[in-house]
Amino acid sequence: MLGANLVGAKYTLGVPAYAYDAGLKDFADIQRFADALNHSIYGIEPGNDGNRQILGIIARNEFHLGNFKLIESSEQGMLAEVERAIRAHAPIVFLAWDPHPMNMRFQIRYLSGGDATFGPNYGGASVFTNTRAGYAAHCPNVGRLLKNLQFTPHGESEVMDAILNRHQTPAAAAAAWLQANPSIKAQWLAGVRRFDGRPALANSPLTAHADGAAGFEAWITRHKIPIGDSVAVMIEYVKAHGMVLFDGISKIVGNSVNGFTALLRAIPSPLLIFLAAALAWGLHRSLALAVFVAAALLFIMNQGYWLATLETLSLVILSALVSALIGVPLGIAAAHRPRLYSAMRPVLDLMQTLPTFVYLIPTLVLFGLGVVPGLISTVIFALPAPIRLTYLGISSVPRALIEAGQAFGATGTQMLFKIELPSAAATILAGMTQCIMLCLSMVVIAALVGAGGLGVPVVRALNTVQIGMGFEAGFAIVLLAIILDRISRPSDKKPS
Predict the structure, then answer these.
(1) What sign for the dihedral angle of Cα 331, 333, 338, 341?
(2) Domains of the chain: total
(3) Is residue 278 one of the residues assigned to a domain?
């Protein structure tokens, strides 16, 4: 071990500076701000070690935090929520660490009192440079360089900020930082020599293109079309001028989803299972399906995923309902107006082919963590199915039926409800079944923005490589998918 190259790193709970000045300075102070904090602490992805420490504090009711909940999402999801809270000057407690660009972006204060959980000195840590035994003696020049290399949390945060937020290559970010800090460069290279024996500091200007790119490729890259920057500026403009609207939508949608989830939880589980089985029997007159629904839900409960299943079911039902309320009328309008469908087609293609993670970025920034970005992203992803299949169903109504209705003097409304919709019902229902499956397929991704549900144990199992938990949660999702598919699909029985 040659020595420490970084000291003073931190890893514990943090708050904005204004919350710290208001008295939120210690773990023991969190409970006093419970109502303002909405009894919530924000973490990163499920399964992270810091999240586990926070969950342990809540489970043990340390600092009287047993009535708090941990909002798990992702690093960027947590930071987006921190940004929203700071913009509103609202208190927030979140998992923070240094070095990290968050310390450049926000004025953060670290809470004391967490030594028993995160360790002393705010979860302090040091990083050491290690080599094989005798390496520094065999290679004294390199050994001297490695001993000289010492970093600070602030310096590392600056380089990380250039890479993550200003999108510089690591080599370019490091070169720019060394140019801005010549004294540190001199300290690192003190006593170090080149291969030719000259001092390393002699005539060592940094090259113009530290990323190593040259020629045509470098020229193209340096003249990058600012698509991403333009979108970021647009989102920032919308954030600055439309947050009242987005906060209102967030409250309405969030309260709707949470209210429906609370309603499902309020129903006794045996009664809810019976109602689901009765619904399967009533729609399909299949005893085998009813028994399967009941057995599958009992199995999910046995595995300990009942509450997570209710959260997922609430999100799927409301997402599918919103998609139907928007998609079916749009599909009908598109079938009656070919130009409208021609205009909608590229948009629908984009919605179906754009990676689903991309939906989460603007919705997360505009609506914050929770079920709201999860629901909105799910609706965007699932909406093309009911639009396309409703359009297909209405467009495929036999011409003879249309002409018969016109011959009998049917109005436009009568044509729609008595001829077109009954004729296209099977296709529209197939679109709704597909919509429900697409909504369910978003459950894991939605967990990354704090939507909860069955996606949380899947992400936690992925991050901690817990094969058993991952298989259990995945099997629960499969069973729920089968239940929703069998119940929502049209009956195969034909009338005699």
Answers:
(1) negative
(2) 3
(3) no
